Amino acid sequence: MADGDLLLAARYALAGHQLSPENAREYEVLLARAYEALGDHRVIDVQEEWVDSVAVSPDGRRIVSGGFDGTVRQWDAATGRQIGAPITVHGGRLKAVAFLADARIVLDGEDGTVRLWDAATGRQIGMLPIGEGHRFAVSSDGRRIVSEGGDGAFRLWDTTTGRQIGAPLVGHDGTTFALAVSPDGRRIVSGDEGGTLRLWDAATGRQVGEPLVGHEDGVSAVAFSPDGRRIVSAGGDQTLRLWDAGTDRQVGAPMIGHALGARSVAFLPDGRIVSGDGDGTLAIWNAATGRQIGAPLTGHGGWVSSVAVSPDGRRIVSGGIDRTLRMWDAATGRQIGAPLSGHDNRGVLCVAVLPDGRIVSGGVDGTLTLWDAATRRQTGTPLTGHEGGVSSVAVSPDGQSIVSGGLDGTVRLWGTATGRQVGAPLVGHEVGVSAVAFSPDGRRIVSSDERGNLRLWDTATGRQIGAPLTGHVGAVLSVAVSPDGRRIVSGGEDGTVRQWDVSRRVAPWETMAAAVCQTMLGQRGRTFSRAEIDADPLLFAEWSDPDRDVCARVPGVPPLPARPNGGGRP
CA-CA distance, 158 to 143, in Å (whole number)? Predict the structure, then answer.
């Protein structure tokens, strides 16, 4: 893989999976890296000049390619043969091509035009006046094109009429501070420093409805209700606001009561809301009436940096810059017992609750501490290892593991039963880790850092899965994983919310292996040649037969046909 020979790497991973069942998880992670990087690998001999872009027809029967020589060629996807004569267009290099549903082709040239062509006749049938310096993408149904003209605005076009649809699309104007995913994974809500919230369709990446406007200062926290029908937002204008996720309208009057402005917010299982303030107080609110239930939960001597709710919904845990954690009765709003003190230095940065009710907290002092909620006492000694503040913490779905992200750039895994670090630190981030999260099945961890990179890790092996996810400019402040584990959503200081498709990285071994064997390697690629075996001592010792099939144990993959005269690959 380091040398870029992904097909060879895939063969080694498949062979190793056969030879060494005890290391199967290692080989699965390695195959996932090759599988994602290979994409839908297939070889067809096409243009004599460079091929800059390709696209597949909606029915999967044709491939269209655009070349450096300014020609467009169509190919039969089943046979790899060229269909008809080349289409010469634009008089120069083609930057991109795409198919529409009704056999039309979209061509993007260096001359600053996007043109529509009839795939059957090879004739031009329209042109979109988009202008120079643009990028474009085609909707899945082929009816819309979205383009970006270098001014930061997105424009939607009707491919039937060639006309622009509506006004340009613009998003957040400033840093995105808050992010949440709906319980069903279908919606994303984000809030920015200007006080605006926006809803996005997780499947399409498009904004849903109008911006949610009402806050007079930056949105610092957002959360979905357990049923996904309501959104609560906390703002620097010292208010909380409730929104209808279906109509985009604010529900009731703003909830007023925080002196400095809420910094964190969460829904209780019964629909009530808990929020933490910059003045060291928490408040519980009735979501139906928008009224505070009782007096603020006071006690912290500084900012409340994080809040969490116990699995049974009966207790709230808060962590503060005053170096304490406090537990609160969710029904009465009263503090339960004395504060939990143990972190030195400048305070608690993050807190989470385990399924068994225990609490884990991370501090500026670089330690994690486990607490018994019943006795309010620290259990065991602090978990040490980070060489800087522990900025983020999350608990695995089964409660057996804790993951922490530190300002030292490391991600560390801990066993909740032993209180000990599991394996070596996960190293890859070159700057401080700003957020961590577990996948729903607990098999993977996603982490983000202050430079805008996200990384995906395998919890069993500690290996990074695939290359970093890059795109944000500046720190990624929050990350979340979709309920099916196939998508990651992130919010950053650059004012953007980004969604990442990691479905290839997290696909089951059987799915990946079958795809690699049947569509990427081909029959010839499923064995090592005699030259490869003789040149590699490991292969020579462990895999000496040139007829041995690396895909022999992959479910659903038919065996290789018998070779004539029993001959292996030369």
Answer: 6
Contact (CB, 8 A) for 46 and 32: no
Supply 485's token pair: 């584990």
Q: Which sign does the torsion angle of CA 232, 235, 238, 243 carry?
A: negative
Q: What DSSP assignment string belongs to 324-367?
A: EEEEEETTT--B-SS-EE---TT-EEEEEE-TTS-EEEEETTS-
Whether this prediction's pTM lies above 0.70 is answered by no
pLDDT tens sequence across 400-457: 999 999 999 999 999 998 889 999 999 999 999 999 999 999 999 999 999 999 999 9
CA 102 – CA 177 distance, rounded (Å) = 42
Strand partners, 71: 88
Pairwise CA distance, residues 507 & 502, whole Å? 9
Closest CA to 325 of 297, 346, 306: 306
Beta strands in 186-335 (DSSP E): 187-192, 196-201, 207-213, 219-224, 230-235, 239-244, 250-256, 262-267, 273-277, 282-286, 291-292, 304-309, 315-320, 324-329
Which residue type sits at 124?
Q
> How long is the chain?
570
Burial of 269 (0-12, 13-18, 19+ CB in 10 A): middle
Angle between helices 6-19 and 24-38 (to 10 degrees): 160
